Amino acid sequence: MNLIILQQPGKIVIGENCINQLAEDNLITLSDKILFLVATPLLKTIQPIGDGIFLSGKKVVIIEYDFAGEPTFNQFDSLLNKSEYFQPDCIVGVGGGSVLDCAKLLAAMTGNEQQYPDVIGVGLLRKRMKKLICISTTSGTGSEVSPIAILLNEETESKSGIVSPALLADAAYIDPALTIGLPPKITAETGMDALCHCIEAYTNKFAHPLVDVYALNGIKLIVENLEKAYNDGGDMEARSALSLGSMYGGLCLGPVNTHGVHCLSYGLGGKYHISHGLANAILLPGVLRFNLDASPERHAEVAIAMGIKRRENDSETALAGIEFIEYLLKKCGIPGSLSVLGITENDLSGLADIAMNVTRLLKNNPKVLTREDAIEIYKKLL
Ligand SMILES: NC(=O)c1ccc[n+]([C@@H]2O[C@H](COP(=O)([O-])OP(=O)(O)OC[C@H]3O[C@@H](n4cnc5c(N)ncnc54)[C@H](O)[C@@H]3O)[C@@H](O)[C@H]2O)c1
Ligand SMILES: [Fe+2]
Predict the structure, then answer these.
(1) Please, which of 108, 185, 246, 317 could form a disulfide with 128 given CB 3.0 to 4.6 Å?
(2) What is the pLDDT of residue 131?
(3) How far from chain centre, in Å, is Cα 277?
């Protein structure tokens, strides 16, 4: 068996209304100053919790995170200034991947002698200075349990990944009740992102039996429940399943991570500001078709986890799985083509150039994916 190192948050608290435990968490009770970074739609839920912690004698600052799109270096800078001023003991991020990535980096960089341009890349961030609690409110990125944070460089229009065990939260809270208000479009897109994490881990060049368990369970939970939650946001059972499924996806990210889908989506997010989940969702069938012949059995197992019956051979089973993903995308209102989002043939070589630079993910693809292959995959999805 190949060696693998599994690093996870100090604790994972999961279940309906588990947010109600937060004030008693010893990460909070043993802190004097707590900074909350909260996505706008969650403010009303978090304010009374913050008030209660304040009344227990702590200093509490709640910063509203109201930036749209992927977080940029400048936006992060403005948050870091506020955090440096307050010097919290503990940072609590409440929101989707954008908020959580910023909260993780804030906890790492507040009071840190390392400057953040120097921490970009894998393993360069040496330590985190503050305690960190991540509370996810989209069932998508899995950022609450991953050692990754991603910022957008607005000048180069490229995304920069910071990967380090120092970004693993002391506690991850996963409360499906917090996702009830998530609009259908975001539900569909973030759910597809989570599905990509699981599928890309399972079909990864560096797939591992330990992580396969998370990946297959995640695929099953997400595929069985995404359309239900898309059609009825109040379906708590579906929301719970998606929360768990996206957490499984997040647990795949540290030890194995994603491959061609996320790699090809970098430019769509960075340059064309297409949301992370939407970009991945559109790319997923195209990249799987390209990769299929590298490992038909693994791609067939993905289909089986989605509930597809075995066909005559693995390739046919896998193809039926890819067709099912295309069907699911339609059912959840996600366009099947890039041109609907304004991408034209002229954009493809630039997109491929960006993708070729994401070597930390490109190397994970189960077969070699060249610049020409990338252009071909994009072209078929126009
Ligand atoms: N760190 C990681 O491991 C990792 C993995 C994948 C993606 N990412 C990053 O995560 C970001 C995307 O995160 P995301 O897809 O979660 O979207 P997001 O955080 O950008 O949120 C999308 C929108 O949903 C709203 N929202 C969030 N929770 C809500 C709720 N409960 N009810 C109503 N509205 C709600 C937000 O306010 C925002 O407008 C990207 O920047 C991507 O690069 C990080
Ligand atoms: Fe993702």
Answers:
(1) 108
(2) 98
(3) 8
